[in-house]
Design brief:
about 400 residues, mainly alpha, MetI-like fold, single chain
Length: about 400
């Protein structure tokens, strides 16, 4: 005789909240939590950008409101034409600022990146003692006020400053740094007998600047600002590289050594490719910072070499607050924005992984990685678990 149990079946809990109503409640709660941040971003970031874009197409003089004002006329692309195509002093000033900033970027970004990577590798060495002291010492200039440290450099590189006194001790006559507008390339050409512009090179060219001025190189005064920028920013980027180095397991370096690679080969063939995401971040931040340089230029205004120090950011400030031309200033700002975006895209293309043909990204490696997320990826994960934790706390590629 068989008996049947009348015990109730166990209840299963429903996942996902209370159905569609619960999902809507979670969505509403999520929007409520993010609403303050969205309001702050919209009011203090998106709205000012949109307003500046509108101002760049108007002849607003900075008085009253640029919106709903009968005295404000839409001029289209006239502000952009005034600084790029029209034959005027304003175009020449903009061209000079672009030339100055180009040399500033070309020298500061590579040098500060190389110095930051070098410092990170040295600080990351296992045998180095007092790592905390060196990290703090290298990073300290980055947290110092840019105004204060620029004032120190103005004192050090004055005509009778410490730098010239040290050079005089070695029987070298130092220049009057912030009063010397000569370009370094012009000085080098003058040393080999080329004292003036070749025929036709002194005529106004791109953006109203002659070809002879385009190849002048950074001025003696600007070289001081370049050294200042490298000194103050390398510490910050050192920390980024240091974090990237410490994310590289010690077994990677040990495998490279077992394969017969020396320290130099290991660094350039193993360590540097694995630092590519960090390198892209450092280069991007460096490009943005150097194209937006303002503080140092503002403090050196009025010096004899000031025309060789002007940057687009300072020119925009000058046009807005001293020339009462907010439309011109907004146009300069958006051209500067387009330059930064273009250089960032070029940099991203240059650092992207490519297939053997040299064009496009390596799709085969991407497929291999995606395929490894299946059974093969699970097998690799199990092997890592069985192998146990990695040894070493820092990067082993030093």
């Amino acid at each position: 005789m068989t008996t049947t149990s009348n015990a109730p079946a166990p209840r299963t809990r429903r996942r996902g909240g209370r159905g569609p109503a619960g999902n809507r409640g979670e969505a509403v709660a999520g929007w409520l939590f993010t609403l303050p941040a969205l309001l702050i971003i919209g009011v203090f970031l998106i709205a000012p950008i949109a307003l500046a874009l509108w101002v760049s197409f108007t002849d607003w003089n900075g008085r009253n409101s640029p919106l709903f004002n009968d005295r404000v006329d839409v001029v289209g692309l006239d502000n952009y034409a005034a600084i790029t195509t029209e034959d005027s002093l304003l175009r020449e000033l903009f061209g000079r600022s672009i030339r100055n900033n180009v040399y500033y970027v070309l020298l500061v970004v590579p040098l500060q990146t190389a110095l930051a990577l070098f410092l990170a590798v040295q600080v990351n060495r296992r045998l180095l003692r007092a790592k905390g002291f060196f990290r703090t010492a290298f990073y300290f200039p980055s947290v110092t006020s840019s105004i204060a440290i620029t004032g120190v450099f103005l004192f050090l590189f004055s005509a009778t400053g410490v730098v010239n006194r040290i050079l005089a001790f070695f029987s070298v006559q130092g220049p009057n740094w912030f009063a010397d507008p000569r370009g370094l390339v012009h000085i080098a050409l003058g040393a080999v007998g080329v004292g003036g512009a070749p025929a036709g090179w002194d005529a106004p060219g791109f953006l109203g600047v002659s070809a002879w001025q385009w190849i002048a190189g950074p001025s003696v005064a600007q070289s001081v600002l370049i050294m200042l920028a490298i000194f103050t920013t390398s510490g910050t980027f050192m920390l980024l590289f240091l974090a990237g180095l410490q994310n590289i397991g010690a077994e990677v370096g040990e495998a490279a050594v077992m394969d017969g690679a020396g320290p130099v080969r290991t660094f350039f063939s193993v360590t540097l490719p694995m630092l590519k995401p960090t390198l892209f971040t450092v280069l991007t931040l460096g490009l943005i910072g150097t194209w937006q340089v303002f503080d140092q230029v503002y403090l050196t205004r009025g010096t004899p070499a000031a025309p060789t120090l002007t940057s687009p950011a300072y020119l925009a400030y000058n046009q807005a607050f001293e020339g009462n031309e907010p439309g011109i200033a907004a146009a300069i700002a958006f051209i500067l924005f387009l330059i930064i975006i273009a250089m960032t895209l070029i940099q991203r293309f240059a650092l992207a992984d490519r297939d053997p043909s040299g064009f496009g990204r390596d799709r085969r490696n991407r497929r291999a990685v995606d395929g490894g997320r299946g059974d093969g990826g699970m097998a690799q994960g199990a092997a890592r678990v069985q192998a146990g934790p990695q040894s070493g706390t820092g990067g082993g590629l030093t």
